Amino acid sequence: KRNMLMVRSFTILLLNCIAFKLACCFSSSISSLKALPLVGHLEFEDVHPASKDFGNRYQLLPLAVLHPKSVSDIASVIRHIWMMGPHSQLTVAARGRGHSLQGQSQTRHGIVIHMESLEPQKKLQVHSVGGPTPSVDVSGGELWINILHETLKYGLAPKSWTDYLHLTVGGTLSNAGISGQAFRHGPQISNVHQLEVVTGKGEILNCSERQNSDLFHGVLGGLGQFGIITRARIALEPAPTMVKWMRVLYLDFAAFAKDQERLISSDDHKFDYIEGFVIINRTGLLDNWRLSFTPEDPIEASQFKSDGRNLYCLEVAKYFNKLDEDKKDVMNQEVKESLSELSYISSTLFSTEVTYDEFLDRVHVSEIKLRSKGQWEVPHPWLNLLVPRSRVNEFAKGVFGNILTDTSNGPVIVYPVNKSKWDNRSSAVTPEEEEEIFYLVAILTSAVPGSTGEDGVDQIIKRNKRILEFSEAAGLGLKQYLPHYTTRHEWRSHFGPKWDDFVRRKSRYDPLAMLAPGQRIFEKAL
Ligand code: FAD
Questions:
Q1: Could you tell me which of 201, 179, 198, 199 has the C-alpha nearest to residue 190?
Q2: Which ligand 1 atom sits nearest the alpha carbon of residue 197?
Q3: If I label 364, which of 12, 85, 161, 269 is the partner at 20 to 30 A Cα–Cα?
Q4: Interface predicted TM-score (ipTM) over 0.90
């Protein structure tokens, strides 16, 4: 008993010593940081908002939040920590909109950089308007929705998007940036000409295919590990004004996937956007759709019954310009012909016409609705997977309607993309199979706060685990998109043949491992 008491007293003493040492460390860090000459400012008091993210499951409280007004503010803070050497506890997390799912944009006791504060006075700069390769220079903290609105003034727009545009350039380029245009243009990381990056040593470097190319490729899809993207030059194309947006239904996954693949493989690009989603255990669906999408044949559509079976919805869009009224008939005819080659259930063609920016900003409409019902800021235990083409039917058979029995708490998006549109030199990871096509499967479930049932966060996480275990046991060779792992072994296996380069770049550009600690890939060197 005496020994136990002694051990207990010793442990308490040790913990107090550590706490005291940390407190000393933090107070000396605070005073040295406060002395830095910055154009923007460091906030030490109101830091709670930076300890949250969209996933709503992880909360790491930072020591401070930097609101940079210039790139040199970011470089000064990082250089300062770099000069403190390996004994400083401080880490740095760039935060875009904080739409990460498992705390990737957070840091415990470190510094969060609020990227949206960066250079608000510096407007987006559009280059080569009217030329063959127009582009736009934007801040790393810029929202894609702002880029859309600004470039549309020149009749231009980026080529590749995400489904939701209230995300930042630095945030999506650190992952990949995938949407229904990726089959044609590749992900957003394939549509960047140049970056300005602040490395983990506080250097400000420009990089591109030709200049500092190792850093350029490393940063794209690099999960924020090698530097902070402060500026990016994004490729543009002439923007359409209108979009014909269509949905058709299938009862058979294989037929749905075959048609999706057929569409993304054709050279004449019959559609500009191709996605799809799975509908499990939902009733009244066709009625709901009629609110915005008109059925081609209302009578036939009203007779359609899914009888509780899974439905697979192919979603395609064709861009056009409002002024070209006579060309519209030709387009409609072409669309009809393209659709006639597909094997969807004929009574289930629904279509609508919207402006280009309405189409691209479509998820924001749902955001507004969910926010008004208090359903936006709930836990989001999402699971995003990249599945090899040759195994996607097996995946669908094992997961849809079996492990996943309901899609009423969030969409399950499924669509193929062409691997040749991804630059293998980037850090982004795709399935290792030598196949031209792989699928994105995004299981975007929202949890009901406080629920212990099937719709509660714990059960959804268990279900996600079952999906991963099933895929692992079947050897499907899938990769996580927006990955989350907790061990070095898992990260190594995630990156596969890219791991050695990833580690090499880390020791070259962020040797103290201070950047993006919320990804949990590297520990800060001590
Ligand atoms: P944050 O979440 O703030 O940051 C993400 C990571 O990037 C963190 O590790 C952070 O430290 C790092 N980071 C942030 N800024 C920088 C920077 N400037 N330089 C270096 N590192 C940086 N993704 C798709 O690909 N396609 C989609 O269709 C899609 N739809 C989505 C819809 C919704 C509703 C949501 C919430 C997310 C969606 N995403 C999609 C995921 C999105 O790409 C990620 O959430 C991504 O993290 C971008 O969010 P963010 O800008 O808020 O970055």
A1: 179
A2: 19
A3: 269
A4: yes
Active-site annotation holder among 275, 315, 361, 510: 275
Q: Are residues 129 and 176 in the same domain?
A: yes
Q: Is residue 390 one of the residues assigned to a domain? A: yes
Kindly list the protein residues whose Cβ atom lies closer than 6 A to any atom of ligand 1: 54, 93-100, 104-105, 115, 140, 162-164, 167-168, 170-172, 174-179, 223-224, 228-229, 363, 482, 516, 518-519
Q: What is the pLDDT of residue 93?
A: 98
pLDDT of residue 308: 83
> What's the CA gap between 118 and 30, in Å, rounded?
22
498 CB-side CA count, 13 A? 20
From 53, 100, 519, give the residue whose CB has the most ligand 1 atoms within 8 Å, as the site to mutate: 100
User: Which parts of the chain sit beneath pLDDT 70?
Assistant: 1-2, 6-7, 9-27, 120-122, 283-291, 525-526
Count of residues making up the chain: 526
Are residues 210 and 280 both part of a single domain?
A: no
Give the distance (Å) from ligand 1 centre to CA of residue 98.
Answer: 7
Is the same domain home to 366 and 352?
Answer: yes
Q: Which of 118, 150, 166 is the last residue of a domain?
A: 118
Asked if residue 311 belongs to a domain, the reply is: yes
**Candidates 60, 95, 514: which one to mutate for ligand 1, based on the most atoms within 8 Å of Cβ?**
95
Same-domain check for residues 253 and 369: yes
Claim to verify: residue 418 and residue 347 sit in the same structural domain? no
User: In angstroms, what is the span from residue 24 Cα to ligand 1's centroid?
Assistant: 34
Residue 491: in which H helix or E strand, if any?
Answer: helix 488-495
H or E, element range at 216? helix 213-219
Range list of H helices, 345-409? 356-360, 362-372, 392-399
Q: Which atom of ligand 1 is nearest to the CA of 104?
A: 9
Residue 412 inside a domain? The answer is: yes
Q: Given 376, 408, 430, which residue is the final one in a domain? A: 376
The total number of structural domains in the chain stands at 4
Regarding whether 213 and 93 lie in a shared domain, the answer is: no
Supply the CATH number for residue 55's domain: 3.30.43.10
pLDDT number for residue 120: 64
Separation of alpha carbons 259 and 119, rounded Å: 45
